[in-house]
Write a structure and sequence with these properties.
alpha+beta, Immunoglobulin-like, Collagenase (Catalytic Domain), six-stranded mixed beta sheet, four-stranded mixed beta sheet, about 20% helix, binds zinc ion
Length: about 475
């Protein structure tokens, strides 16, 4: 692709003064307000159609850091005081719509996706603003609306109790903890203990990984599981359709392994029973798959052999705002990062100016930028693997066959990467975020690149820790 657009390196957002706790009490009630809407359009149009407002329970987010200083995300939601215009709250995010609009289908037809924005319930009338990131990384408002929290248009009915909220590891006040809520889908009522075992196994893997390990005391973990009519979740390519409580399904965007839910309202009503900052949706299936969208949620197949890896990798997307560092696997996106632009994600770069690399401070003196690695040798292995994976998919291979294939590439690919002279060092290695040539990643290997390592690279680790810092104080 020809890089013709003027680009800008990711710049730090203007310093924003965090509101003191007394300001929070003056401006907000301490509960959570949810704004539901339909996000619709095609490759060239984008519209917001409001659906309604819903009062949820206690606000689980920070009460001292109310505006988003991280500046991650394709979109940003901003709440302003209707009287004075002051920014009261803001949050960057990504969405299913934001991914879908980069697929081929968006060139042919319109679609609508149900979305929600949750924010602390304001005491007075506010204006709501949805902004989208431009190619130079600045923000452009594309929708605004009004919200009077005292109006009859806010649904204040109690949230329906379903499934039961299970405290897995609750350490303290939601206001000063990261509240992680795991929602199970595809377990029957009789399989509740199996679900709880899976939650312990997978959160155990997460908290064995840095930076989560050293920050474990900053997390509360809860789980909810509403019983499904039969085990498993929908698998359209396998001809399997099940009406599960949050309707997780494989084959999103017609990609077999991509598991999402489009039933946002059902999911939000179930989740609203517990305080939460982050959601992970678990599916009772051995079929390999998952997904993760920044500040939306992560999904994970609980019983696939690499489930622990999928759980941590997808949470890297949804919680840390991390990009995929791989570039060869089949995806539906036709241009995920517009040509010639610097990605907003903290762990990939177009490397237009090595001196201003956004993780420059983590690069040791003497490390060349870009940093050499034998991409051709790795690609040769990977192309052969992707071909066999495609053949297995076409032949509708069983889970054991697919797992054996993944073990094989892990052994050969992992050994290949470990031989690289700059292995384990931070640099800028060509290939990342679905782009083999135009984008660079921080390390030879990372949880966001392959299934080989058990650690995030230092750049990803730091990005995740910054998110923890914004929620746990
Ligand atoms: Zn990384």
């Amino acid at each position: 692709m020809l890089a013709t657009l003027i680009t800008a390196l990711l710049s730090c957002p203007a310093a924003q003064t965090a509101a003191a706790p007394t300001d929070f009490a003056a401006r907000f009630t301490g509960r959570t307000l949810r704004f539901d809407y339909h996000h619709c359009g095609d490759a060239t149009h984008e519209q917001i159609a409001p659906d309604g407002f819903r009062l949820e329970g206690e606000w689980a987010g920070s009460r001292t850091q109310l505006t988003d200083a991280l500046d991650y995300g394709k979109y940003r939601f901003v709440v302003r005081d209707a009287a004075g215009g002051a920014t009261l709250w803001s949050q960057g995010f990504c969405s299913i719509y934001g991914e879908w609009e980069t697929t081929g289908e968006a060139k042919r037809q319109w679609r609508a996706f149900h979305e929600s924005q949750r924010f602390p319930e304001p005491r007075n009338a506010v204006t709501l603003h949805l902004e989208k990131r431009a190619n130079d990384l600045s923000w452009r408002e594309f929708w605004r609306g009004e919200c009077d929290p005292a109006s009859r248009f806010v649904d204040r009915s109690p949230v329906t109790a379903r499934g039961g909220v299970m405290p897995i590891d609750v350490k303290g006040d939601p206001a000063t903890k990261v509240d992680l809520l795991i929602i199970g889908d595809g377990w029957t009522g009789r399989q509740r203990d199996d679900f709880i075992d899976d939650v312990h196994r997978l959160t155990g893997a997460l908290f064995a990984t840095e930076p989560f390990q050293r920050r474990r005391g900053d997390f509360n973990v809860r789980a909810i599981m509403a019983p499904a009519p039969q085990p498993g979740v929908a698998d359209p390519r396998g001809g399997k359709f099940i009406d599960t409580p949050i309707r997780l399904q494989f084959n999103a965007f017609d990609l077999d392994r991509y598991m999402l839910t489009f039933a946002n309202r059902e999911l939000r009503e179930l989740a609203a029973q517990a305080p939460y900052d982050a959601l992970i949706l678990l599916a009772n299936t051995r079929k390999y798959g998952g997904g993760g969208i920044y500040n939306l949620w992560a999904t994970c197949a609980a019983d696939t052999e690499p489930a622990a890896y999928v759980f941590v990798h997808e949470f890297g997307h949804s919680f840390g705002g991390l990009a995929d560092e791989y570039y060869s696997s089949q995806v539906a996106y036709e241009e995920f990062t517009p040509a010639g632009t610097e990605p907003w994600e903290p762990n990939v770069t177009a490397l237009h100016d090595p001196a201003r690399l956004k993780w420059r401070d983590l690069v040791a003196a003497g490390t060349p930028l870009p940093t050499p690695w034998d991409q051709a040798a790795y690609d040769e292995l990977d192309v052969a693997y992707q071909k066999r994976r495609a053949e297995a998919l076409a032949a509708n291979a069983d889970d054991a066959t697919n797992e054996a294939l993944m073990r094989e590439i892990k052994a050969s690919g992992g050994a290949q990467l470990a031989k690289e002279p700059w292995f384990g060092q931070v640099g800028a290695f060509r290939g990342g975020a679905y782009e083999p040539t135009n984008l660079y990643r921080p390390s030879v290997d990372c949880i966001m690149f392959t299934r080989n390592p058990t650690a995030f690279c230092p750049v990803c680790e730091r990005a995740i820790e910054r998110v923890i810092d914004t929620l746990a104080r």
